TrEMBL record:
Top-level lineage group: Bacteria
PANTHER family xrefs: BLL7424 PROTEIN, DUF1501 DOMAIN-CONTAINING PROTEIN
Full protein name: DUF1501 domain-containing protein
InterPro entries: Alkaline_phosphatase_core_sf, DUF1501
Organism encoding this protein: Kolteria novifilia
SUPFAM superfamilies (UniProt xref): Alkaline phosphatase-like (SSF53649)
A Pfam cross-reference name: DUF1501
C-alpha cells in the first residue's frame, strides 16, 4: 500500500510524518506492518551470516511412509500395499516405483525412516518449528525456522525478505501455515507473495517517477525538523524508509517471483502439477512453487516454505500416491538438479516431510489412517553427508526399531545448515528469558 496525503495537511508542529507517507504495508500474519517497521526489526538482528538457505516442503495430511520411502515387501499384502520398490543410484537403497527421478538423485539425498515425536495434529507446526503447539503457548508459541532465521540472521539483500511463505490458502487452514513467528512477533512472519504484499510490490500503479518525487518532498519536509532531532531518531527513520523504497523500487523480488523469466525448458522440467487431484480441503500440487522457491533463495531469501498436496489418504491411498508422488518426483528432482547445476546445493537444504505417517494396515476403503507413532522424511543438499538412510521401522512399519529421529533433530539440522548453532544460540522471549532454538542437536550421522 502506498498512501500519499493531499494538500489538506499543513506544515505545523503536529504534522505526522507517518500520516504523510506510508510505504509498503505487507501482510504479516494477522498484522499490517510497513516495510520500514519490518526492516527496522531486521536491522536490529544483524546481517553478518553467510547466505545459506532452506526450502521446507510440507506434505500436508500425513504422507504414507510405507508407500514412499520405506516399502515393506516382507509384510502381509494388507500391509504391504500395491507398490513395488525400485533401486536407486546408491546400492542397497530402494524407494517406491513412483519416484524414478528421485531414485537417480539418492546420492544427493538422505532418507529418514524413523521420524518420531508427532503430537498427531493435522497441521504444519512441528515441521516448521520442531516443537509441539503446547510449548510456550502462553508467550505466543515457538517461532518457526524461517522466523528465527529472519531474527538472528536478517536479510541477505535489503530488497528481498529473508522469510517467504508460498503455501496457498487451504480450506483446512492449518495445512497452509507457512511458519508462525511465535513469541518473536509479527515483524518476523513470512512475506506472503500471493496476498496484499504482492500488490504492494507493484506500487498499485504508482510510477517510479512519481514515487521518487514523493521521496523528494518527504525529504524537504524532514529537513524542517532535523535540527530538533537531538536523539538521532529522524536519521534512523530515514535509513529504514530508504530501505523500504529500495524494496518497492527494486525489481529483484518481483523478478524472483516471475517465472516467465525462466526458459520454457526449465519450466517444463519442473512441470505445473496439474490437473490438481485429491485436493479437497488441502493444498494443490503446485510444482511451480518449487521453481519459485529456488529463484527466491537465489535472490537472497534465507527460508522458503511451501505446502504441497493433500496426503490425508483415508481412501484411495494408492491412487493418491500415484498422482501426488509422480508430480512430487518431477518437481523435487528438478529442484535438486537445478540447485546442483547452479552450484547452490551445498548451501541450500531441502526438507520434504509431513505431520505424521499412515497406518500399516490398509482399511476397507483402500486407504490408510493416521499414524503418529512414526513417519518418514527426505533431506537433500545442505553440505550434508548424503546417500544414506537414517533409522528403520520394524517389519510392519509400525514403530521405529532403530535410531528414532525426533522432529527437533531435523529442525536442528536445518538450523545448523543455516549457520545457527542450536547448542549455544538463544532468543530472548517476551519475559526476558533466553530460550534455546532447539532442545537437541542436529542429526550427527549427516552433519
Amino acid at each position: 500500500m502506498l498512501t500519499i496525503t493531499g494538500p489538506r495537511y499543513r506544515l505545523c508542529e503536529n504534522f505526522s510524518r507517518r500520516g504523510f507517507l506510508k510505504i509498503g504495508a505487507l501482510s504479516m500474519g494477522a498484522w499490517q506492518l510497513s516495510l520500514a517497521d519490518i526492516l527496522r526489526a531486521e536491522q536490529q538482528s544483524g546481517t553478518s551470516a553467510p547466505h545459506k538457505g532452506v526450502i521446507n516442503v510440507f506434505l500436508g495430511g500425513g504422507p504414507p511412509h510405507q508407500d514412499m520411502w520405506d516399502l515393506k515387501m516382507e509384510a502381509p499384502s494388507e500391509i504391504r500395499g500395491e507398490f513395488q520398490p525400485i533401486k536407486t543410484n546408491v546400492p542397497g537403497i530402494d524407494i517406491c516405483e513412483v519416484f524414478p527421478r528421485m531414485a537417480q538423485l539418492m546420492d544427493k539425498s538422505v532418507l529418514i525412516r524413523s521420524v518420531v515425536g508427532s503430537e498427531g495434529r493435522h497441521d504444519a507446526f512441528q515441521c516448521m518449528t520442531g516443537w509441539t503447539t503446547r510449548d510456550l503457548v502462553s508467550l505466543g508459541g515457538r517461532p518457526s525456522v524461517g522466523a528465527t532465521a529472519a531474527k538472528l540472521l536478517g536479510p541477505v539483500n535489503p530488497s528481498v525478505p529473508p522469510f517467504v511463505g508460498l503455501a496457498a490458502k487451504t480450506r483446512h487452514t492449518p495445512w497452509s501455515d507457512s511458519g508462525k513467528p511465535g513469541f518473536l512477533g509479527a515483524a518476523f512472519a513470512p512475506f506472503k507473495p500471493d496476498g496484499p504484499g504482492m500488490a504492494n510490490m507493484k506500487l498499485n500503479g504508482i510510477t517510479l517517477e512519481r514515487l521518487q518525487s514523493r521521496r523528494a518532498l518527504l525529504g524537504n519536509l524532514d529537513r524542517l525538523r532535523r535540527d530538533i532531532d537531538a536523539d538521532g531518531s529522524i536519521a534512523a527513520l530515514d535509513s529504514n524508509t530508504q530501505s523500504a523504497f529500495n524494496i518497492l523500487t527494486s525489481s529483484k523480488l518481483v523478478e524472483a517471483l516471475d517465472l516467465s523469466k525462466e526458459s520454457d525448458k526449465v519450466r517444463e522440467r519442473y512441470g505445473d502439477g496439474k490437473p490438481y487431484k485429491f485436493q479437497y480441503d488441502g493444498a494443490p500440487t503446485c510444482n511451480e512453487q518449487f521453481l519459485m522457491a529456488r529463484r527466491l533463495i537465489e535472490a537472497g531469501a534465507r527460508c522458503v516454505t511451501l505446502s504441497y498436496g493433500r496426503w490425508d489418504s483415508h481412501s484411495k491411498n494408492f491412487d493418491l500416491v500415484r498422482d501426488h508422488g509422480s508430480k512430487l518426483d518431477q518437481a523435487l528432482s528438478a529442484l535438486i538438479e537445478d540447485l546442483d547445476v547452479r552450484g547452490m546445493l551445498d548451501d541450500v537444504t531441502v526438507a520434504v516431510w509431513g505431520e505424521f505417517g499412515r497406518t500399516p494396515r490398509v482399511n476397507k476403503n483402500a486407504g490408510r489412517d493416521h499414524w503418529p507413532k512414526v513417519s518418514g522424511a527426505l533431506l537433500a543438499g545442505g553440505g550434508m553427508r548424503t546417500g544414506q538412510v537414517i533409522g528403520a521401522t520394524n517389519r510392519l512399519g509400525e514403530y521405529a526399531e532403530r535410531r528414532p529421529v525426533h522432529f527437533q533433530e531435523i529442525i536442528a539440522t536445518l538450523y545448523r545448515n543455516l549457520g545457527i548453532r542450536t547448542e549455544s544460540t538463544t532468543i530472548t522471549d517476551p519475559t526476558g528469558r533466553p530460550q534455546f532454538v532447539s532442545d537437541v542437536g542436529p542429526i550427527s550421522e549427516i552433519v
